[in-house]
Write a structure and sequence with these properties.
The protein is α/β, with parallel strands linked by helices. α1 runs parallel beside α5, α2 packs across α4 and α7 crosses α11. It has 11 helices and 13 strands. GO terms for molecular function: DNA binding; DNA-binding transcription factor activity.
């Protein structure tokens, strides 16, 4: 008998939509309480509307779900079958609602973040990524290190959601870059260089006019490359670039090998490369290494918004 009732009821459950969940909640309360008045009190409603919900459900199914008794009600065989299915369905609906709310709050999903090699060495970047993982453990974070051009391509083609870069992205259609912070640039010298001896005074940038430079390729670090070139031109000379490197870390390796000197963000000191001495620079106004967060224009996903908010808050704390 119960098995047959399940077969009759189940097709109805497959076609049920959200407004009709009220009927199932009412039915579950009535059968669990065994009394319509007590069920109405439990649901915070009047008895007549609750009775109408029950009657409407019975009419749609074409079966009697409860047996009316002198002092209450009890489920019929069909009612018992519906009760079991209703509880499972309502429990699943409650879980589903919470899943949707968490997604809307940016607490679940996926976030792909890229960064240049120099950006990754600034403590701000790993620090904010660590905070995001701790605050939103339900979001899977994928990381990628690449040059600025590669990161911009990945953003445009939606392989990345955000990227920490040094360039302000002038003229990059479909992308935007929000400034986060700036750090000073330092002179990186081979340990045996004449300018590497310990002096308290910064090295004037014009003093480097006759030196050999090792720089990272412009397409890899466009923002910093252009800033260095501009500062040197304003100091009265064009840097003599004898070697370009594919990454900033490779640049330091070439400096350590004695191929020339370079100008790098202060955070690069964290690498503590052997054979390299860092000196402050003077007579170079405006020479600084910016850090930007690049995203797609119009991308308003909840996870990305949550990440952007965290970055903005951390940037204020950093300043």
């Amino acid at each position: 008998m119960i098995a047959n009732a399940t077969i009759e009821v189940f097709p109805y459950l497959e076609s049920i939509d959200v407004p009709e969940l009220r009927q199932l909640r009412a039915f579950v309360a009535i059968t669990e309480e065994g009394h319509i008045t007590r069920a109405a009190e439990r649901l915070g409603m009047q008895q007549p509307p609750l009775t109408r919900l029950l009657q409407g459900l019975e009419h749609e199914l074409g079966v009697e779900l409860v047996q009316r008794l002198p002092r209450g009600v009890r489920p019929t065989a069909a009612g018992l079958a519906l009760l079991e299915e209703s509880k499972a369905l309502l429990e699943r609906c409650d879980v589903l609602a919470e899943v949707v709310r968490r997604a809307a709050r940016g607490e679940t999903g996926r976030l792909a973040v890229g960064f240049t090699s120099s950006a990754a060495l600034h403590p701000f970047v790993p620090g904010v990524l660590r905070m995001f993982r701790q605050q939103v453990p339900g979001v899977a974070v994928a990381l990628e290190e690449a040059g600025t051009g590669e990161l911009m391509d990945a953003l445009l083609h939606e392989r990345l959601d955000a990227a920490f870069v040094r360039s302000p992205l002038h003229g990059s259609q479909g992308l935007q870059a929000v400034p986060i912070l700036e750090e000073p640039m330092l002179l990186a010298l081979p340990a045996g260089h004449a300018l590497a001896r310990p002096l308290r005074r910064p090295v004037p940038l014009p003093q480097l006019a006759s030196e050999d430079f090792v720089l990272y390729r412009r397409r890899v670090g466009q923002g910093l490359y252009d800033a260095i070139l501009k500062a040197c031109l304003e100091a009265g000379f064009s840097p003599r670039v004898v070697q370009e490197a594919p990454r900033m870390t490779a640049t330091l390796s070439l400096v350590s090998a004695g191929l020339g000197l370079s100008i790098v963000p202060a955070s690069m000191q964290r690498l503590r490369s052997d054979g390299i001495v860092y000196r402050a620079l003077s007579q170079c106004p405006g020479l600084a290494a910016p850090l930007h967060l690049a995203t797609r224009v119009g991308d308003a996903s909840a996870v990305l918004r949550r990440f952007q908010d965290l970055v903005a808050t951390a940037a204020v704390a950093e300043s």
